[in-house]
Amino acid sequence: MADSLRGMEIVVAGGSGGLGSAAVRMLAAEGARPVIGYRANRERAEALAALGPIVQADLAIAADRARLLDAAPSLYGLAVFCGNPARVASPDALEEALRLSHEVNFLGPTMLAREAAARMRDAGTPGSIVLVSTMQAVSVFPGSTAYACAKTALIQAARILAKECRGESIRVNVVCPGVNRAGMAEASIASGKYDRYLNEGIVPRFGQAQDVARAVRFFLEPDSYVTGQVLTVDGGLTL
Ligand SMILES: NC(=O)c1ccc[n+]([C@@H]2O[C@H](COP(=O)([O-])OP(=O)(O)OC[C@H]3O[C@@H](n4cnc5c(N)ncnc54)[C@H](OP(=O)(O)O)[C@@H]3O)[C@@H](O)[C@H]2O)c1
Question: What is the distance in A from the centroid of ligand 1 to the CA of 167?
C-alpha cells in the first residue's frame, strides 16, 4: 500500500478539522495530492496549506461544492469529514438543531458525494468516496437525536450511492468514529464527560485522529474490493 496513492488527487472536505487534518497529513506523507476543504476557520486551514490547496466551501451551497471539486480536476478520492455536533442546550432548541444537523451532517456531505461520483463516472476513472459519520449513528445514545439521526441518514445515503455505482469501479464507504482526542470531542473529553468509559474499562484509551485517518485510508486503497461498508472505529465503545 505504501505507494499506491502517490500523485492521486483526493478532496478532503473538512480537512482542516481535528480528524480531517490527520487524514490530510497521512495522505500527503504518502505522496497523494490532498485538496483541503474548510468552511469558515481559515487560520486552521492555512496551517495545512503546505500540504495542498485549501478551498473555502460551505457544503450546503451547491456552487461551493462545485468549486471544491473543481480544485481536483483528476479526482480519484473524496473523504468528507464535515460535520457539526448539533448540540441541544434545551428542549426548545431541538427543532433548530435538527435543521442545522440535516444541512451540515446529511445534505451537504450527501450532495458532495453524489456530485463527486458523477464526475468520476463522466471521467470514466475509478474512484473512492469515504463519508465520516459517527458511532452515535449506529448505536443509541440518549440526547443525540439531532446529531445522530442525520448521521444515520448519511450512512443510508452512502449505501444507496454505493449500490447505484456497482460495476463502475466507484466505491462508497463510511467510517464511524467513537470518542477522539481531537476536533469536536476534545472539549468534552477535557471536561470529564467521557471519563467513565475509561474508568469502567469500556475502552482502553480515547481515540486519536490517526485511528480514524487509518480507517479512511483503508477505504481509499485503489485496488480495494470493499464498497457499501460501514466501519466503526470506537475502541469497542458501542459493543
Ligand atoms: N471528534 C470526534 O471524536 C468525532 C467523533 C465521531 C464523529 N466525528 C465526526 O468526524 C467529522 C470530523 O469532526 P472533527 O472532530 O474533526 O470536527 P471539527 O474539528 O469541528 O472539524 C469539522 C470540519 O468540518 C468543516 N465544516 C463544518 N461545517 C461545514 C460546512 N457546512 N461545509 C463545509 N465544511 C464544514 C469545518 O470547517 P471550519 O472549521 O472552517 O468550519 C472543519 O474542517 C465530523 O463529521 C464529526 O461528526 C467526530
Answer: 31
Query: Cβ(104) to ligand 1 under 6 A?
Result: yes
Which residue of 25, 38, 58 sits with most ligand 1 atoms within 8 Å of its CB, as the best mutation to test the pocket?
Answer: 38
pLDDT 10s digits, 177-225: 999 999 999 999 999 999 999 999 999 999 999 999 999 999 999 999 9
Which segments of the chain are extended strands (E)? 9-13, 33-38, 54-56, 75-80, 127-132, 170-177, 230-233
pTM: 0.98
Give 148 Cα–ligand 1 centroid separation in angstroms. 14
Verify whether ligand 1 is closer than 6 Å to residue 109 (CB atom): no
> What is the pLDDT, as a whole number, of residue 100?
98
Our answer on whether the CB atom of 19 is closer than 6 Å to any ligand 1 atom is: yes
Q: Which of 82, 85, 100 is nearest to 17 (CA)?
A: 82
Given a contact cutoff of 8 angstroms between Cβ atoms, the answer to whether 199 and 208 are in contact is no
* Domain layout of the chain by residue ranges: 9-180+208-230
233 lines ligand 1 (CB under 6 A): no
Residue-level pLDDT at 1: 64
For ligand 1, the distance from its centroid to the CA atom of residue 38, given in whole angstroms, is 9
Give the number of C-alpha atoms closer than 13 A to the C-alpha of residue 154, restricted to the C-beta side: 38
Q: Does domain 9-180+208-230 have CATH number 3.40.50.720?
A: yes
- Per residue in 86-109, pLDDT (tens digit) is 999 999 999 999 999 999 999 999
